[in-house]
Backbone:
DNA sequence: ATAAAAATTTAGACAAATCTAAAAAAATGG
DNA sequence: CCATTTTTTTAGATTTGTCTAAATTTTTAT
């Protein structure tokens, strides 16, 4: 089956919204896709006819098994292309989303799988989000602190423990903020300090104390 | 300016047809694009309104300067993606066209230029066709024989001189046919024989006599 | 020169994806 | 429990790219 880019965008948006609320509303979809709610209603009828989702009017929407499968395929393509752009074509992590938004609709599945191989079957994209594998399995991400991250692992800042002004000043100075993505460049056993790199800034060293204070979401098996 | 994939396909088809006939007819375009002639007429009006071509009804069509420029950009993308698929993702040269037909419509021009750099600013695609550079210049291709091709140069078989049964048997044995693309792997000064490689077959050595008999179109400045 | 053939355009439709405005259903809150 | 607000759907258009059938123009060949 081949679906239009528009339909694929709907399916992907529903999948993402479903992570939070089990039931996805017309208005939340309209907001996510930047369309009029009326357009969403129209499209939901078509997607239902194609068995990609369950939908009863006024009742919200849920993906079927095949809808989920499709969503995961698109997300896989999106994240692999993002990583390709950053790793191989030297793009910054902040400029790749819009391009991947187009590339994710290229239909060849052989292409995605070859790209996956070319990139060494990576587990996470440049933003730290997990890349589904060929079978649609999504690698688990670990919730922990920078002090436990492996060398060369990517992660995204999900929280700060000690939020004292002194600590926040240090973090702000190093551009460490909620949602920021970072890479552990090196771990020093001497003092258990860690060298980390944030996009657009030189690498910096942080003490074990600070590293334990930065909560992150990161891939379980980097490399 | 951003154009739809459909419009880009029209512009590209007109450009290619223009290489032969200076004047491109509605029917030839319809055939090339596998659409009804009426659809072509409709689209030509739109493309004319966008100043991409000159068009008077019943009079055929010609690209304007900006139409040509757009065509060359699309061809550049198409051929760079084809080469990427063959060189980096191990696709066969015969399976890449359809995928490139989709990839050529990805809009980011930064992406194409980075891809160009990633591939080492190549001069020809896997089919031996020239790749326009960033400024839209198309490298000249030379018309000659295998015996004059430089080492590691790619070329496409454009003709056979001696067509005796004996010669044809030898050529067929080595899978050398009109339209085949080949690469010169090594030139041996000892006997002026040449080792050539055809897609999907092991490299073979051909004598100077045979090399002089295979006419090819190839890039002037390989590497 | 003119009739037949071929090429091209026009007319009228249609599917996909979108919109605005109006109607209907559901949720909320006194 | 009912009135108001919010959400969602329906109705009716619009744009883009396509189609078939019919009309028109150009070309070709007697
Ligand atoms: Mn998209
Ligand atoms: Mn991402
Ligand atoms: Mn195309
Ligand atoms: Mn090609």
Residues:
């Amino acid at each position: 089956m081949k679906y239009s880019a528009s339909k694929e965008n709907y399916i992907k948006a529903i999948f993402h919204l479903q992570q939070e609320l089990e039931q996805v509303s017309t208005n939340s979809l309209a907001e996510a896709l930047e369309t009029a709610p009326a357009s969403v209603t129209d499209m939901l009828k078509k997607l239902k006819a194609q068995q990609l989702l369950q939908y009863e009017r006024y009742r919200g929407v849920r993906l079927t098994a095949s809808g989920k499968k499709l969503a995961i395929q698109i997300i896989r393509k999106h994240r692999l292309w993002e990583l390709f752009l950053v790793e191989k074509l030297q793009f910054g992590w902040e400029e790749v989303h819009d391009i991947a938004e187009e590339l994710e609709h290229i239909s060849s599945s052989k292409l995605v799988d070859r790209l996956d191989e070319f990139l060494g079957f990576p587990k996470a994209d440049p933003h730290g989000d997990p890349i589904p594998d060929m079978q649609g399995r999504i690698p688990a991400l670990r919730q922990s602190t920078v002090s436990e991250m492996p060398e060369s692992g990517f992660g995204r800042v999900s929280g700060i423990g000690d939020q004292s002004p002194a600590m926040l000043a240090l973090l702000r100075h190093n551009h460490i903020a909620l949602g920021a993505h970072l890479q552990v460049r090196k771990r020093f056993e001497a003092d258990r300090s860690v060298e980390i790199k944030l996009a657009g800034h030189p690498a910096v060293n942080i003490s074990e104390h600070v590293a334990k204070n930065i909560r992150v979401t990161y891939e379980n098996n980097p490399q």
Remarks:
- Chain B has three domains: 5-63, 74-141, 144-219.
- Helices of chain B lie at 5-20, 26-33, 37-49, 65-87, 96-103, 109-118, 165-173, 208-211.
- The longest helix of chain B spans residues 65-87.
- Chain B touches chain A through 17 residues (CB under 8 Å).
